[in-house]
User: Fold this.
Amino acid sequence: MAAAAAGRGHPRASHADRERAIGALESAFAAGLLAKDEFDRRVDRALASRTYADLAAVTAGISAGGCESKPSRPLTRAENVAAWGVCGLIVSAVLTVIVAPAGTTKGVVVVTAVAIYASSWLLGAIMMLAARHRGSRPARG
Assistant:
């Protein structure tokens, strides 16, 4: 009952939050900030944690590159699409710079980047449709 009262009023931590806290502990252990026995104790506490406050106590005192557990939420569909779009732009720009020969005009570089970007979206759409098509097939008996 005391454990339930201690967590009252604090948002509950998810399994993913506990995994992030354990990742922070692993990073701290790898960096030599935690001894093996301290690492084991903290991992056990992280697995038993139910609230963000519990997880904050588990990762207190370590600084593994800012990997301490923080409340998070899954990306929305729009944020996910935007993230992939930005990644697509970066990849197409890098590929364009790698592929473009020296002395190429800016116009050719831009057209090449747009072509690579559009091709990657087209390929992604084809892969999604193929996956959807495979998933909709009736089971054979």
Remarks:
- Residues 1-9, 64-69 have pLDDT under 50 and may be disordered.
- The chain is about 70% helix and 0% strand.
- The radius of gyration is 24 Å.
